[in-house]
Design a protein that fits this description.
It contains eight helices and seven strands. By secondary structure, the protein is of the alpha/beta class. The protein has one domain: 3-Layer(aba) Sandwich (Rossmann fold), CATH 3.40.50. The strands form two sheets. A five-stranded parallel sheet has the order 2-5-1-6-7, covered by helices on one side. The chain has a two-stranded antiparallel ribbon with strand order 3-4. Helix 1 runs parallel beside helix 8, helix 2 packs across helix 8 and helix 6 packs across helix 7.
């Protein structure tokens, strides 16, 4: 059953200078759509986005066969200490150098994206509610809940178009990594969420969330 505990959360946060919102959900659930819509609706330059995907360990030195065995859906694939350190630095008012990670090469770029401290920080990724230390730093925890079949269709389209995988590669990866890791690590984090967005990115609920964030910014 979705739970929308919006008003109590924002009443408690009125005195904060920075609002940190975690947005999680399974692969292909529509998290990126939610983030883009929030950024679109909120005042310009009031929001910064940290992507969990940027913090995958650099595996550029592995062979092509070794890269196929990387489990991107396991918490151990993420450099959590660096992500948490960057979030802490943003809270202190510092600009951070967020890595750029490429799935095609499984490596981090030599370039970075400079993320500036703003009134709202969106931390987005499939596992951002898995890590307890990261959750402690969030004011609001959101889980984007989407039917498994719908997520699989989105994953197939995305991985073929953006990650250089064949149809067979996508299905093998889904059966080997995505589905079991979702059941073991990601789905259980729904219980830690303050807000569950049903049917992927329900426009009505996203509008309500954006409205409440604007109220916080106004106060």
């Amino acid at each position: 059953m979705p739970k929308f505990q919006l008003l109590p959360i924002f009443v408690a946060l009125n005195t904060n200078t920075m609002l940190i919102i975690g947005i999680a959900g399974g692969s292909g659930s529509g998290k990126t759509t939610v983030v883009k819509e929030l950024v679109r609706q909120l005042p310009e330059n009031s929001v910064s986005v940290i992507s969990q995907d940027a913090y995958y360990f650099d595996n550029g030195d592995k062979t092509p066969e070794e890269k196929k065995q990387i489990n991107f859906d396991h918490p151990d694939a993420i450099e959590w200490p660096l992500l948490i350190d960057h979030l802490d630095r943003l809270k202190k008012g510092e600009t951070i150098p967020m890595p750029i990670y490429t799935y095609v090469t499984c490596a981090r770029s030599q370039e970075v994206i400079y993320v500036h401290p703003t009134e709202v920080i969106l931390v987005e990724g499939i596992m951002v509610l898995v890590n307890e230390e990261l959750r402690k730093r969030m004011d609001i925890k959101v889980f984007v809940d989407t039917d498994g079949d719908e997520r699989l269709m989105r994953i197939i389209r995305r991985d073929i178009a953006e990650r250089g995988r064949t149809w067979e590669d996508v299905l093998r990866h889904y059966q080997t990594f995505v589905k079991p890791m979702h059941q073991q690590f990601i789905e259980p984090t729904k219980r830690t969420a303050d807000i569950i967005l049903p049917r992927g990115s329900s426009p009505v609920v996203v509008d309500i969330l954006a409205s409440r964030i604007r109220m916080h910014l106004g106060k």
